[in-house]
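Researcher: Here's the sequence for the chain we discussed earlier.
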Amino acid sequence: MTVFEYNDYELIDLIREGNDDALEIMFKKYEPLIRSRISKFNIKPMMVEDFYQEGLLALNKAIYSYKMSSPKTFNKFFDLVLQRRFITLLRKNKNYFNNTVYLDDVNPTILAEPRDLNYEITSLEADDYHLTDLEKKVYFLKHKKGCKPRTIAMILGLDVKQVYNATDRIKAKIKNN
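Model: Thanks. This is the structure I predict for it:
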């Protein structure tokens, strides 16, 4: 019998009654979800195991705080608890991750189409202003998507200062034309 053949609700009942074997089964069952979330949050390799342990702690918390009468499935409930835990950790220490963008900070439609970052400014704008690739991306995110400099920096993996510098260059090129 594999770990996926066990019902979450039966396991939760057993765990709440003190069954350690059921807890081990639940940990094995949710390991793929925890590891998947770690990779999606772009955690630095040296911090992966620490975040995995945090994921197990979040799972334990979810097991004891989940209400069986809830309309949400346990899986969805745990995923929400896990993501909130990771976001809390990341907000406390930005050294844990590589250029992660919080969905709270960005309108989800901005990132819906990754090819949007290759946006071509109309030929008139591109020819007249001679914008570099970076300047085109900053221009697109700021003026077409309405992003703030801090968000643009996170999306493009830049310092906020670099975004301000690119914005200043764009303004100067437009003004000089």
